[in-house]
Amino acid sequence: MKVVLDHLTKRFPNRTKGEPDVIAVNDFTFEIPDGKLIGLLGPSGCGKSTCLNLISGLEKPTSGRVWFGDTDVTELEPENRGVGLVFQNYALYPHLTVRQNIMFPLQNLKGADKLTKEEMLRRSDEAAKMVQIENLKDRKPAQMSGGQQQRVAIARALVKMPRVLLLDEPLSNLDARLRLQTREEIRRIQRETGITTIFVTHDQEEAMSISDEIVVMKLGVLQQIGKPQEVYNDPVNLFVAQFLGTPAINTFTGEVINEKIYIGEEAVLPAPGVPNQNVWVGIRPEGFVLDENGPFTLDLTRVEIMGRDTSVVATHPFAQSPSVRAIISSENEVDADAARIRFSLKPKKVFIFEAESELRIRF
Ligand code: ADP
Ligand code: MG
After folding, report:
1. In 10 A of CB 50, how many CB atoms?
2. Given CA atoms 212, 218, 219, 220 in this order, what sign does their dihedral have?
3. Is pLDDT larger for residue 329 or for residue 312?
4. CA-CA distances (angstroms) from residue 123 to 8, 93, 260?
5. Global pTM exceeds 0.85
6. pLDDT by residue (tens digit) across 49-107?
7. Residue 178 has what DSSP assignment?
8. CA distance 347 to 363
């Protein structure tokens, strides 16, 4: 099922008295293609949950429409939209078994949708199988790990065969290893079922790893939509560049003079056609190449050798953060006693942004 957001806006009265309204979702217009997994990504408070709630119907928009396929669902109640919901807190019924928990949504179906007991059992067993907990069906939630409980919650969302699956930070309560495993699981289930899925997270790595496309948001405003790697390689502004990638992009204050990018006194890269101006310079950690004749110099703090890669941790007077991180292949020898290290830069890994607007300047 294709999902279309059409100038969708949600305004809340501020929770702090006297402060202006909060525009949690500001004029969102985009289309989620049928059968895809979309990652809705942004820092805490940027409006991800609100956006998801507008799609599920838990919230009604201040203005704008939501479409499922050719149907305008804006006025429909959540139970009539055919959505499956999974939240951070699994909210299972503690006194019911796993099987009863999964079956629960089916027992509330009314009229023409009403199912026989056999059909309910069949469907809940199928959903349990899909998330690989069929051998735990008779347990109570308290007898299961967090990861298993979250699988029950996912099975419960799937059992009604939703047209759209909505997941709001579903992995946040799991420890690191389970988080990794469960996210792959979600990806597999999504591929198998082909259900259009929207996955909310503040974790860029999580979103990048499982999404067909990511939607990056900031303060209720959509910043960029695209395939994860495309957005990483071609960010539209400084926020997106800084939000994606671990370690994060290194940001410097710089200047374009005579079609060259300067950081301090050093002309680090040509920028043909760019007018003279102050800029932000972003350099991805993998954009540095050891080069004793290179144009860019860092003050070395330490060298961290980690298997395949070597991290050069350094400082620079024009850097926006206390340390700069360059990642190079560990086949390179770095003199850990050197005070300064010179680099040349990979042009595709260097971005510049307008000083005021922070918009990308392409060159
Ligand atoms: P996220 O899920 O990205 O953390 P939310 O969608 O929960 O963000 O919230 C977005 C903004 O809207 C925040 O500033 C939040 O405080 C505000 N907000 C969310 N729900 C309400 C509400 N019911 N009343 C007032 N403000 C709200
Ligand atoms: Mg949220």
Report:
1. 21
2. negative
3. 312
4. 35, 19, 64
5. yes
6. 999 999 999 999 999 999 999 999 999 999 899 999 998 887 899 999 999 999 998 98
7. H
8. 10
Is the beta carbon of 55 within 6 A of some atom in ligand 1?
A: no
Could you tell me the distance, in angstroms and rounded to a whole number, from the CA of residue 54 to the centre of ligand 2? Answer: 13
- Beta carbon of 316 within 6 Å of any ligand 1 atom: no
Helices (H), the chain: 48-56, 98-107, 117-130, 146-158, 176-193, 204-210, 228-233, 238-243
The verdict on the CB of residue 15 being under 6 Å from ligand 1 is yes
24-38, 201-215, 247-261, 319-333: which has the minimum mean pLDDT? Answer: 319-333
d(CA 21, ligand 1 centre) in Å: 11
Verify whether ligand 1 is closer than 6 Å to residue 50 (CB atom). yes
Q: Which residue has the higher pLDDT, 336 or 34?
A: 34
Ligand 1 atom at minimum distance from 168 CA: 2
Q: Is the CB of 44 under 6 A from ligand 1?
A: yes
Atom of ligand 1 nearest to the CA of 59: 23
Compute the CA torsion angle 308, 312, 318, 323 (nearest 10 deg). Answer: 90
Euclidean distance between the first and the last CA atom of the chain, given in angstroms as a whole number: 39
Q: What is the mean pLDDT of residues 18-29?
A: 96
Distance CA 226, CA 248 (A): 19
